[in-house]
Design brief:
The radius of gyration is 16 Å and the shape is globular. Helices cover 26% and strands 38% of the residues. The strands form 2 sheets. The chain has an 8-stranded mixed sheet.
Length: 182
Amino acid sequence: MGSKTGNLVLRPITERELTPALFAVFDRFQKVEKCWRKIGGEWVIKDIAFLEQWEEKDYRELCASLQSTLKSGGAVWGLFLAEKLKGFCAVKRELLGRERQYADLSELYISADQRGKGYGRLLFQKAAELGLRFGAKKLYISAHSSVESQAFYRKMGCVEAGEYDPHHVAAEPCDCQLEYVL
C-alpha cells in the first residue's frame, strides 16, 4: 500500500491521524518575492512579496479539509522521514469539469526543510496515480502563483487549464489554474 526507501516512507494518511499534532514538525514557510499574474490575457511576473507561514488555526482548518476529502472517498498521502510528516498530497474523489475529466489535486506541500530533494515529484506522481484510479483523464491544480511553485508544476508537465473551475477561481483568484494529462 505504501512504499519505503531508507527512512523515507510514502503512505496513506488515515482520518484518525489528521490532527494538528501530525504537522508538529511540518514547516509551511515560503518567502515569496515574485508571482505570476494574467494581465490582458498574457502571463507576466510581478514583484509581489510576502511570507507564507501557516499557524495553528491554518493546520486545524487543513485537517478538517483533509478529513472531508477522505470522508468523500478521496485520498491523502503523506511522505514521512524518520516517522515525521515532511510532505503530503490530497486528491478529491469527485471529478471536475464539464466532462468530469479532472481529478482535483487539492493539496501538495513539502516542508520547507525538505524542498529541492525530489519529494514533490514523488507526491505528484502519487497524485497522478490517484487521479487515474478515480477515473480522471487529467489532474486539476489551483496552484500558488509564486514563481517557485509555478516552476515546480511546469517541470512536472503541467500547463494552463483548458477549463477553469469556477469554485477554485472564486476561492483563490490569484492562483494559477493548471492541468496535467494523465
